[in-house]
Design goal:
Strand content: 25-35%
Largest sheet: 8 strands, parallel
Order of helices and strands: EEEEEEEEEEEEEEEEEEEEEEEEEEEEHH
Structural class: alpha/beta
Helix content: 10-25%
Number of helices: 2
Radius of gyration: 27 Å
Number of strands: 28
Distance between the termini: 66 Å
Strand order of the largest sheet: 1-4-7-10-13-16-19-22
Length: 381
């Protein structure tokens, strides 16, 4: 268990906390600040169960909390802010919380009650094809992400509910690179507000359920022609292949605690073991000055039946989507760096062993050269 530590990462530092274990790993109630180059809290592959609970993360690049190919995981009650884009490789999945990789032995994946402010992305989910578990993204508040509030990619399955996603620089929720050939997510009882492009954007042709959400307008979401929403709405926009009706006509403010998937698995923190009957999900207050005009997601009708053509994204968006294969480059670079560190440690160990052996040989030579002691007079030889 890594608990109750305060870590200040200097400029150029790699990690704030680097966790690795063979069974259960707990990172609880730690404070990590500073420009960690690879992640403020980074969990290596290996633990069968990882609990990252009630930590405070400020600063860092690439990720506030990064879990790489971790089996069963719980990321709860963390506060994360000021996470900048990664500098390792083009297309790196940067964000406040990043879940990358998984295995067929995964039992549960739970991202709950976290607070993220000013991060590159909020929650990024990139699961592997052997994982059949649905990631629960529940009761999180994500504000001011540079790109996406929640980004679901590859073989990931996600259930989003009771989240407040506000002021995303591009999309509140984006579903892309869908290799499942199935709907990637279900989204209910969320607040999507002030997203610059879409509140929910589905880049696949598999319709997703986004009913029962608040879109910042009693008329529901805004959209382009042919999608079927009220085009006079000033709320967050919705893309094609998103089922959004019926929708909420007021923001979600009261949150009923979600039940656990497995009653045999305890919550990560003892303080959260007993949940109240109801909790309050903070609705972000509007600034005193009106926000800048949002770029609308309207576009011309496309050849897709009942659909629209997504507008061409800015250069930053194209760069984010450019190379999905860069993930392997980034991982190989990190593994090479770790292998180099291990080689240096091994070289130092060998040098110490050689020095010890030389000292032992020198001591033995001195002992051999030392003359035998002379017996006292009168004593037979």
């Amino acid at each position: 268990r890594i608990r109750g530590n305060t870590v200040s990462v200097p400029a150029g530092g790699g990690y704030g906390i680097l966790g690795d274990a063979d069974s259960v790993l707990q990172i609880v109630a730690d404070t990590v600040t500073g420009p960690a180059r690879y992640g403020a809290i980074w969990v290596e592959p290996g633990p069968r169960r990882a609990e990252v609970d009630s930590n405070l993360v400020s600063g860092g690049s690439e990720a506030g909390i990064y879990l790489l190919s971790v089996d069963t995981l719980f990321v709860r009650d963390n506060t994360i802010s000021n996470v900048t884009p990664g500098t390792c490789c083009l297309g790196s999945p940067t964000g406040g919380i990043v879940l990358e990789g998984s295995s067929s032995t995964n039992v549960q994946a739970d991202v709950r009650r976290n607070r993220m402010t000013r991060t590159t992305n909020g929650v990024v989910i990139l699961r592997d094809y052997l994982d059949t578990v649905t990631v629960r993204v529940d009761s999180n508040a994500i504000r001011g992400s540079d790109s996406m509030g929640v980004w679901v990619r590859y073989y990931s399955r996600a259930l989003l509910r009771w989240n407040a996603v506000d002021s995303s620089g591009i999309d509140g929720v984006r579903l892309s690179d869908n290799y499942l050939a199935l709907p990637a997510a279900v989204m209910n009882s969320n607040n999507f507000t002030r997203s610059q492009r879409f509140g929910v954007r589905n880049l696949s042709t598999y319709p997703v359920d986004a009913t029962g959400n608040w879109w910042e307008d009693v008329k529901g979401p805004d959209c382009g022609p042919g999608v079927g929403c009220d085009t006079t709405s000033t709320g967050d926009s919705v893309s094609t292949y998103v089922t959004f009706s019926p929708f909420l006509t007021a923001a979600v403010t009261t949150v009923l605690p979600a039940p656990r998937l497995l009653a045999t698995l305890p919550l990560a923190s003892p303080a959260a073991a007993v949940a109240p009957a109801a909790a309050t999900l903070r609705v972000w207050e509007r600034p005193s000055a009106p926000p800048a005009p949002r770029e609308r997601a309207r576009s011309q009708a496309s050849t897709v039946l009942g659909g629209v053509t997504a507008p061409a994204g800015p250069r930053a968006l194209r760069r984010l989507e450019a190379l999905s294969g860069a993930r392997a480059d980034r991982l190989s670079q990190r593994r090479a760096e770790r292998a180099g560190l291990l080689e240096q440690q091994e070289a130092r160990r060998v040098a110490r062993e050689q020095l010890r052996a030389e000292r032992q040989r020198a001591r033995a030579a001195r002992e051999a050269e030392r003359p035998a002691p002379t017996p006292p007079p009168g004593r037979p030889q």
